[in-house]
Amino acid sequence: MPAQDSQTVLDVVSWIQHNTEPTLAYRFARRVGMCGSCAMMVDCVPRRTCRTHVQTAQRGAS
Length: 62
Ligand code: FES
What we know:
This protein has two helices and two strands; from the N terminus they run αββα. With 62 residues, it is α+β, with helices and mostly antiparallel strands.
């Protein structure tokens, strides 16, 4: 996936599901960071993936 500045973890998971692993299952709703349905463990930290930028997760910040 081409890296982008404001890329979220959910963007990456969606790209993987659409382009390399169609059996990958995940949930999300409106991508506005309110419902929590996109929550996943990211590097051992529970996060709303639609609001977690990849660069933030890589730094280990919350
Ligand atoms: S899709 Fe609802 S919080 Fe992320």
